[in-house]
Design goal:
Layout: H1 5-25, E1 30-38, E2 44-51, E3 56-74, E4 85-100, E5 104-111, E6 125-141, E7 146-150, E8 153-156
Antiparallel strand pairs: 1-2, 2-5, 3-4, 3-6, 6-7, 6-8
Length: about 160
């Protein structure tokens, strides 16, 4: 069987296309490290390092369950021994898109805290976030379909 020049060119082009496509299909996204903290504002901050990504923008979603305790603090910086505190529960989330560099994204996302809603303080007192906790924390790379669960975290700002 004699191979014509045009068939040979087509075969070479096909093999070249396969070789060029291999790096894209070899993406094996994996979270290398993930950590959670609570910022001074009460926001959940999840810092992460994901590797094996290839190049381009990678989209992320952060979700968590949250409980926040809001309280009233008087001018002396104390919480009066009254029932003027409110616990609120809800979900928090955040999204972000980050450019992969050398197959890697190192970034962080912040979410929360949940709002105090209609809770307010009487005159002469100020509303503060007394404590906040986050559980069922999940960070998802929505571009590659990779997720990681993060340990719950909490922080107390005022003892009430």
């Amino acid at each position: 069987m004699k191979i014509t020049k045009s068939v040979l060119v087509a075969i070479i082009a096909f093999v070249a296309a396969l070789v060029m496509a291999s790096p894209a299909s070899a993406v094996a996204a994996k979270f290398h490290s993930v950590s959670a903290s609570v910022a001074n504002s009460g926001a959940l901050v999840v810092a992460f390092d994901e590797r094996g990504l290839g190049e381009g923008d990678i989209d992320y979603t952060l979700t968590a369950d949250s409980t926040a305790v809001y309280a009233c603090i008087n001018g002396g910086g104390n919480h009066p021994q009254a029932a003027n505190k409110e616990t609120v529960n809800g979900d928090v989330s955040a999204t972000g898109s980050f450019e992969a560099k050398n197959g890697r994204v190192q970034a962080s996302l912040s979410a929360g805290p949940i709002s105090a809603g209609d809770f307010s303080c009487p005159g002469g007192q100020r509303l503060v976030l007394a404590s906040v906790s986050y559980s069922n924390i999940v960070l998802t790379d929505t571009t590659n379909g990779t997720s990681v669960s993060v340990s719950g975290i909490s922080r107390t700002f005022f003892d009430v």
